[in-house]
Amino acid sequence: MRTVMNLWLCLALWAGFFSPLAVRAETHPPNVILILADDLGYGDIGPFGSRTNRTPNLDRMAAEGMRLTSFYGAPVCTPSRAQILTGCYAKRVSLPNVLFPKSSDGLSSQEQTVADLLRQRGYATMVIGKWHVGDHPDFLPTRHGFDHYFGLPYSNDMGPNESAAAATNAPAKKSQTPPLPLIRDDRVIETVNGRGQDSLTERYTEEAVKFIRDHQKQPFFLYLPHTAVHTPIHPGDKFRGRNGTPFNDWVEELDASAGRVLDTVRATGLADHTLVIFTSDNGPWLPQGTNAGVAGPLRGGKGSTWEGGVREPTIAWWPGRVPAGTSCDAVAANFDFLPTFVKLAGGSLPADRKIDGQDISPLLFEQSKTSPHEAFYYFNGSRLQAVRSGPWKLSVVARAGELPTATTPFVPHLYNLDTEIGERTDVAAQNPEVVRRLAQLVAGMEADLGAGTNSGPGVRPAGRVANPTGLWLPGEVPVN
């Protein structure tokens, strides 16, 4: 009898080892899907407290996965995307500010992006949506590790000849809908005008679904940086008028898009082998009024280093690996994506350069509750404005609301984010040792990346072209 039982046990183990799931796990590293919203606030989706926007798909994603409640991006678009792609603070790779059409600067070809490193591991790679780290052909995704690209090279409010000097935050200006070049791989396939933006989210989603279905049998990395919900606001026809304001409608469409991506992963049988992350690039663009979201309990919004400008609503989903219905408050950031994804793929990081990000898979798998970072640094452009270590956040540059007066010069402000997430009470006087420790961290970072300039020893140059050109259909160069 014992011999028969041992035989059955061996057969069962053998069958399990050679099952399709086991074979896939042995021969196929996990797929990775990164969904990035644009200007979505911390309080704009249900899992982070919204009672205005209906987000049933993200609600389910959070119920089946993990909310990351202290997850950081950058104050504005380009730096946040540079951090995702390079695993570094944007200042380190000389992309600390928003790029405009026909910029001479862009993502350097000397950087090894997350797509470069995953493609070395046999991954199919694609980006669908807003790129915004350079629109000259040398800077496009297909030059930076992506097999394919479909989307817009910059924000949906940027005219073809707009420059940083001409750009403003005025809602009147930003309500305009300029002509936009829609790119497939490295060439423009059409010019998107006016109502053409209404279909962008649906088109991005269709491309994402097709990519997943077409690459079921090989590991893939899908980067899906949406145009939504950046102004001007353009929900699709199926969603317009459903939920109060066009902004609310577009959040609902963004949620539906995420739902279709997740449903496709489930339908193709890839759920147990795919990490999906949903996040945003920066906080809500508050001056846009009803065309902007909200930061929930956080102070400030886009363009600031208050928590509302850089702390992002983030969800991780991987059934069987990321525990369902969990949350993690350890500090992490979007530059952690690169080392995390590369580690999961079985790869290694470049040894010839500094990478600021860390592998956060122990946080995702609840093997640890401790941040791998001693500190997180809040840059606004090239200026280091604040630092966080544990619950403590030290503001070292006067921000809106901290401005000195003629009789009261600015001194660093200290906030305890565990006891007061809204950053209202300065507790520096009660905690001088904490202030000194965080000030030392600031000094160390400024010694690395420079104080207020891009001249620190740890700064690497951006890519640069002498004669930048825009991307347009032949004979169709629009005028603002």
Helix and strand arrangement:
Blueprint: H1 2-17, H2 20-27, E1 31-37, H3 56-64, E2 66-68, E3 71-72, H4 77-86, E4 105-106, H5 114-119, E5 124-128, E6 148-151, H6 171-174, E7 180-184, E8 187-192, H7 200-214, E9 220-225, H8 246-267, E10 274-280, H9 307-310, E11 314-317, E12 326-328, E13 332-333, H10 337-344, H11 361-364, E14 376-380, E15 383-389, E16 392-395, E17 413-416, H12 432-449, E18 463-464
Parallel strand pairs: 1-9, 1-10, 2-12, 3-13, 5-6, 5-9
Antiparallel strand pairs: 2-11, 4-18, 6-7, 7-8, 10-11, 14-15, 15-16, 16-17
Helix pairs in contact: 3-8, 7-8
CATH-derived architecture of the largest domain: 3-Layer(aba) Sandwich
Distance between the termini: 85 Å
| Principal-axes shape call | globular
CATH class of the largest domain, anyone? Answer: Alpha Beta
The biggest sheet, with number of strands, parallel, antiparallel or mixed sense and barrel status, is:
10 strands, mixed
CATH superfamily of the largest domain, called what? Alkaline Phosphatase, subunit A
Number of strands: 18
Helix content: 25-40%
What structural class do you assign from the helix and strand content?
alpha/beta
Average pLDDT works out at 91
What is the N-to-C order of secondary-structure elements (H for helix, E for strand)?
A: HHEHEEHEHEEHEEHEHEHEEEHHEEEEHE
The fold-level CATH name of the largest domain is Alkaline Phosphatase, subunit A
Report the β-strand fraction as a percent range: 15-25%
Overall radius of gyration:
23 Å
Low-confidence runs: 1-26, 168-175
The side-by-side strand order for the widest beta sheet comes to 8-7-6-5-9-1-10-11-2-12
Q: How many structural domains does the protein architecture include? A: 2
The total of helices stands at 12
